[in-house]
Amino acid sequence: xxxxxxxxxxxxxxxxxxxxxxxxxxxxxxxxxxxxxxxxxxxxxxxxxxxxxxxxxxxxxxxxxxxxxxxxxxxxxxxxxxxxxxxxxxxxxxxxxxxxxxxxxxxxxxxxxxxxxxxxxxxxxxxxxxxxxxxxxxxxxxxxxxxxxxxxxxxxxxxxxxxxxxxxxxxxxxxxxxxxxxxxxxxxxxxxxxxxxxxxxxxxxxxxxxxxxxxxxxxxxxx
Length: 223
Hints:
By secondary structure, this protein is α+β, with helices and mostly antiparallel strands. It has helices at residues 2-18, 28-31, 64-78, 93-103, 112-115, 177-192; strands at 25-27, 36-37, 61-63, 82-88, 141-148, 195-198, 201-207.
């Protein structure tokens, strides 16, 4: 009996330890508390329509190098009365697995009109909108936009965050000049601070020379 208790205690302890934030990761608020956030996958305001597995608390987690780079971006933006706003950063593998499971249930189209009106759900894998691995899980990829600090409103980027369609491509032509300028401004300031853009999503950037280029983490998002 004692042996069983010891084994159980060890297993629970190991499980809890495995879920702790690994060395090299930080809470972004500890590096720069002025950066705004709206973790969409913590809420129902996302393309699935419910909280995503692995998201437990409203805290942005990234690698230390990514946090330092975002802090530099924020300093530049604050001089213009602007701020970064984070939609997603580190994303546990269990969340990616949740996306994959959802994509296979073709009847679940709760948010289709809002997020993928022109894309058949059966083609989300084929077109690359859903995948079994994500750079977010390595801790150095962020989804973000810019807000005006006076109004608290996001700059108009011409398409919503996480919209599945060509409208989200950074250089999509069928948007207004102001929307194009806003996208280019975001892209330029991120490039200048060592981030690499993704060519299909105006909001998606990955730190160059990321510290964990081939490691996919699965610890939950909690404080």
